[in-house]
Design a protein that fits this description.
Length: 455
Amino acid sequence: MSNSQAASAADSATLAGLDAWRDLPIKQQPDWQDRDEVARASATLAGLPPLVFAGEVDTLRSRLADAAAGHAFLLQGGDCAETFAGATADQIRNRVKTVLQMAVVLTYAAEMPVIKMGRMAGQFAKPRSSDTETRDGVTLPAYRGDIVNGYDFTPESRRANPDRMIDGYHTAAATLNLIRAFTQGGFADLREVHSWNKGFAENPANARYEQLAREIDRAINFMTACGADFEALKRTEFFVSHEALLMDYERPMTRIDSRTSQPYNTSAHFVWIGERTRELDGAHVDFLSRVRNPIGVKLGPSTTADDLRALVEKLDPDREPGRLTFITRMGAGTIRDALPPLLEAIKTIDARPLWITDPMHGNGMTTPNGFKTRRFDDVVDEVKGFFEAHRAAGTFPGGIHVELTGDDVTECLGGSEHIDEETLATRYESLCDPRLNHMQSLELAFLVAEELGRR
Ligand code: PEP
Ligand code: MN
């Protein structure tokens, strides 16, 4: 970039108000020790290539508009917190396969396009309920995700290190590269629908999946015999998303697109604002109000109708189709009371956001033996409550947001493997929230498919 080009990019960013957040109240940021180090890391990030392109972001917005209008369904899933060490070929492949399998189940049962989106390739920053953690009388900064500090409980590891943002970028790039290869290079071909099940342990959900895969095969064979051309089945669109939490990363990844002169956050196709950072006058809402990406907002049980209307006015003043997704995370015991007033409120302001359910974050609990977990039955119950509320209001239940992994971990209680409190200890790997394992994810997909089918 020449000096004059750099100057005009800076002018456009100022015009777009991309730094207005700096003067606003902000939550959940690391306690960086050295601002110069942060500025250097941010400048490095600003010079690195975009991870996603504006055109892809625009495509996603139009897909989400279809979902908001009731013609498609969004499946968003992945780790609570991705780790740098977890960005291995096997783990990424298993997560992509799990999402593809869930999407097939949903598409087939509901006869509706499914938009596939990973909580992947950038889900590295975590909000925490406390700034510090104390173990055996020693207090250190809380772990805020691999993009900020390390999980090991030592002062060196827990120090917020700005260079980790650069590592986060490169890990996201490597992850996204593999996702693109898997989904564009033949692996996601619908004729491979059986092979996505290979390598997973045998269990009832897999058996049910196999049966469905055989039906899909028969349908494809029939259409092939009729002379249909399946070029379109070879590839699938797969989008990536994360919580836009760490502003010193999100800001330098946001660029003015040369074609449209509009700001795009090029770190992911879709970014969302978490339940803890959605204050109307706070930094996160201001910043995301200014980017062109489709954005999400998590809504917990305390959300009022006024909050909702104000968020719409601020984040989607033009009521642009596909722009705004509300991700409700109310808790199984609360959703049937908390969601209906919000669905009614939206009707009073002529807005049509996409509504999706996160049946995970309102259902956390800690077992007597000290594991942070969730009951699969509560997850299922919240999903059912979500569909019920939308059925009653006449609005469209447009998607699901879940924490999952393709591995056979034991982090959530229940499911048809009957994971109990003792079993949790056998394979608990999450550094943050408990995830559905491969089988629980598939089981959930069958259940959502049934709900969607009888909508
Ligand atoms: C999350 O998605 O991991 C999370 C922290 O969610 P929420 O903002 O809904 O609490
Ligand atoms: Mn989480």
